[in-house]
Every structure is written in C-alpha cells, then in structure tokens.
Design brief:
Strand content: under 5%
Helix content: over 70%
Number of strands: 0
Shape: flat
Largest sheet: none
Structural class: mainly alpha
Number of helices: 7
Radius of gyration: 19 Å
Order of helices and strands: HHHHHHH
Length: 155
C-alpha cells in the first residue's frame, strides 16, 4: 500500500494499534449488553476507523487522494442496504435459515440496485462480470442487460 511504498511502516503500526485499542474498548463495553451483536459492532467500528485513518495517513504521506466520489457512493449504497437489512431483522427477526437467506437476497438486490442507480459501476466492472461468467460457465443474461444499460447510460 501507499504507506509502505513510502517506507513509513511506523504509521502502519500506530494506526493498527489505534484500531486494536478501539476494538478492545468497544468489546469491553458492548459484549456484556449486546453479546455477539456488540462484538460485531465493535469490529466494524474499529475497521472503519482503521480504513479512514489509513486513507488520511496515505494522503498525508504521499499527497495522493486514496478516495474518490465512486468510493463514497459505494459506501453510501452499503450503508443504505445495511440499514434496510437492519430494519428487516428488527421488524421480523431471523428465526430460520430461509428467512436469513431471504434477508440476504433483499440486501444484495438493494445494494446492487443502489450501485447501479448511483452510477458506481463502469465498463471495467462489466468486463469483470463477463470474465467471471466465462470462467464459471454461468450465464446471467438479465444481469448483463441491466448492467450494460446503466454502464452505457453513464458513458
């Protein structure tokens, strides 16, 4: 990554230690009350802090901007999709494997739909989709048509 490229490995250590301390602290407070959900929340927050801090450090060290508008849009799509999933779980609960599978499918459709609507996907993503289909032998014609329509709209 950029920080290692500029031989600033101490930055890596300090930022990682910060994330570990945040994770341990949040686990200490959240697990007794929320159990595994608290642990998942603590881990998510610490990874988020790690990612943001590393991006800021990379910018400071190199002057390069490691973030972009598309990244922000993809993160927004993820947050909205996660919020939808959260509301579904709070409202209906997950009592069975079929319910969990259905909720995951709803999350996935919402996330991909938002990626398309926000214009995050581009021709490179379409090429990757086609390469995966070629490699696996699985053809998903309707997905190709939808992605092509949105990618061509942006071009």
């Amino acid at each position: 990554d950029v920080i290692n490229l500029f031989k600033k490995t101490k930055v890596h250590i300090y930022v990682s230690l910060l994330a570990v301390l945040i994770n341990i602290t949040l686990n200490y407070f959240l697990i007794p009350t929320y159990g595994i959900t608290g642990a998942a929340t603590a881990t998510t927050v610490s990874y988020l802090v790690l990612s943001i801090t590393m991006a800021m450090a990379a910018h400071r060290v190199s002057g390069l901007k490691p973030h972009s508008e598309k990244l922000a849009k993809a993160a927004g799509a993820g947050l909205v999709s996660s919020a939808i999933l959260y509301v579904l779980v709070l409202t209906f609960g997950v009592m069975s494997l079929p319910a969990a599978a259905l909720f995951f499918l709803i999350f996935l459709v919402a996330y991909v739909g938002l990626l398309l609507c926000f214009g995050v996907l581009d021709k490179a993503d379409l090429s990757i989709l086609q390469a995966v289909q070629k490699k696996t032998g699985i053809r998903i014609g309707i997905v190709n048509k939808i992605v092509k329509r949105f990618v061509n709209r942006e071009s």
